[in-house]
């Protein structure tokens, strides 16, 4: 499992507990989880691209 997926999974465990604590239904949690995890990984990858671009600019 890649770093982004590991971090997303760790974050999601917390968010899922919060949703369960507040009484969210299981099917609702599953839908939220799909979007949360995919958005987290997508955003993480954009962040890594931005870091790499910043490094390239500093080295140029």
What this model shows, in words?
- 88% of the residues lie in helices and 0% in strands.
- By secondary structure, the protein is an all-alpha fold.
- The radius of gyration is 15 Å and the shape is elongated.
Give a short overview.
With 60 residues, the protein is mostly helical. The chain has one domain. The protein is built from two helices and no strands.
Looking at this protein, list some descriptive labels.
single chain; 60 residues; mainly alpha
Please count the helical segments. Answer: 2
Strand content: under 5%
The residue-averaged pLDDT reads 95
Rg is 15 Å
What does the largest sheet look like?
Answer: none
State the total count of DSSP E strands: 0
Globally, the shape reads elongated
N-to-C terminal Cα separation, in Å?
33 Å
| N-to-C series of helices and strands | HH
Helical proportion, percent range = over 70%
Structural class: mainly alpha
Number of domains: 1
Which spans have pLDDT < 50 for at least 5 consecutive residues? none
Task: Write the topology of this structure.
Elements: H1 3-21, H2 26-59
Helix pairs in contact: 1-2
């Amino acid at each position: 499992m890649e770093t982004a997926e590991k971090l997303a999974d760790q974050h999601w465990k917390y968010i899922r507990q919060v949703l369960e604590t507040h009484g969210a239904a299981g099917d609702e949690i599953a839908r939220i989880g799909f979007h949360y995890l995919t958005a987290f990984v997508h955003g993480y990858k954009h962040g890594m691209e931005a870091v790499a671009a910043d490094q390239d600019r500093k080295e140029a």
